[in-house]
Structures are given as structure tokens and as C-alpha cells.
Amino acid sequence: MTSSQARKRADGLLARIYRHRADYLYIAPALGVMLLVIAYPIAYTFYLSFFSTPPSLAMSEKIFVGFENYTRILAARSFHEVTLNTAIWTVASTFFAFVLGFGAAIVLNREFIGRGLLRGILLVPYVISAVAASYVWRWIYHSDFGVIGAVAMQIGLTDRPINFLDNVDWVLPSLIVVNVWKEFPFAMIMMLAGLQTVPDQLLRAAQVDGAGVWQRFWHVTFPHLKGVTLITVLLLFVANLNHFTIPWIMTGGGPAGASEIWITAIYQLAFGRIQFGLASAYSVILFLAMIVIGYFYVRALTRGDDRRDA
Length: 310
Prior knowledge:
Shape: flat
Helix content: over 70%
Number of domains: 1
Structural class: mainly alpha
Number of strands: 2
Distance between the termini: 14 Å
Order of helices and strands: HHEEHHHHHHHHHHH
CATH superfamily: MetI-like
Strand content: under 5%
Number of helices: 13
CATH topology: MetI-like fold
Strand order of the largest sheet: 1-2
Radius of gyration: 25 Å
């Protein structure tokens, strides 16, 4: 973009703002509230991340340490282990929730007897409280009284109870299963809405031309779903990256940190070890990662507007 084009775009933006100056007065109270409850905590978190706050000192006696909190976090071996857990948790939960939700949407997009009932049943995990779901799944996974272990022993798959949540190899996959079960209805709703926007005329025309089921899906249906697919995946990714309830209630990050992710590690630092400066630096790292994801999300939302402007 040349300087003249940039200047022209800036002039157009200022003219648009001036033309709608009265509209901004209506949203000024809401913007003020957002600045108070969102912008101020973010700014204070950035500020606090440059200080050391030992538990023995009051907050008013915090010690300025510059970027030491960031270097401590990035150099710690535990950070790399937690980051790996976070990546596995986020990517696996997003992928399987989307795939399962998309498959359910394809099924529900067809007309059949009992479709409304099935749709209501599949929505149950999404409307259940995450806290309640976490406690129910803790009992389902229980090594002594859990349903899964009891059924596995009954049919002869194992001769002793399966230890899901206290095994360092099984705990993270077990939590991912719960998270996928909780979140796939969201992907189902989004993709079902997208499937219902695909023109029937195009599908029938492709069928008349001899296109098979897969060819119709790949060349007709899928191109219409690219936008909603990208938005759904990004929303799932953000939600999983920030998901706290299920891993904290079910395992608290254990055993031996095997299910620790960024958000639970931040909570442990802030309210377990009372190291608010270190926790703030950790939060800033997470916030920067969210900014990157948010950029792609906004690009996905405004892609149509950019094409119209062009």
C-alpha cells in the first residue's frame, strides 16, 4: 500500500467517524464500562507482571524486577511441559469436538423420524453446567466405583479397575474425552446452521450431472462451509485454550502435573503460591497468544466486508 492510498484510507476513516459522531454518544456508557471492567484489569496485569510479589510482603511492598518474571517462566522446565499439555489439550479437543459435531450436523441435516428428539438429546451436554458435568465424570472415571471400570471388568476387558485420573498416561486423554463430549454440540449447531444455507438447487444440479455423494460434498457443500468452519474452529480453539473448569475440578492439574495447562498453572501461581507478579507475567503470555488467535478470528469475520470494499 502506497502512502497516498494509506492517507486516503485514513481520511475516509476519519470522515466516517465524523459522520457517525452522534452514534458514538449512545455507546459511550457501554465503552466506559468496558474500559473499567476489561481494559483496566488488563493494563494492571501488564503492570504487575514487572514486579515480584513474595507471599511475605504486602502488595504495596512489591519489588520491581523488570522482565525477570518472564525469563523465569520461559526458562522453567515446567513451563515447557505445561505448554505441551496445553497444546495437546487444545488441539485434540478442538479437532475431535469439531469432527464429532460436524458428523452429527450432517446426520441431523437429513429428514428422518425423531430428528427433533435426537437434536435435543445431543444438545444436553452443552447445556449442562461444566461444574456438574465434571463431578459426574469424576464418578464415571472413579477407579473403584466408576461405571467404565465396572463394565470393563464385567465383560472381561480387564481384571482390575482402570485408573483414569490418577495415571499420568491416561489423565489428559480422559479429560479431553470429557471436554469433547461437552463441546461438540456447539460445533454441531454451528455446522448445522451452515449446512442449511447450502442451495438445494446446486446439489440437485450436481446430482443430475452425475456427481456422487462425496463429489457433491467436496465441490458444492464444503465451499459454502469454509467461513463457518473457520469461525467454529477458532471459537473452539479459544474456548479450549481458556477452559479452566473441567481440568481443575477433575484433577487440579495432577497427578504430578500431567494435566496441568496454562490456565490452571496461572491459578496455582496466583492463589496457591500467592505469586501474583509471576502469575501476571504468565497471564500476559496467554493474552498475547489470544491476541494472535483473535486477529485471525477478526480476519475471518471481516473477509466478506473486505471483498465488498474491494
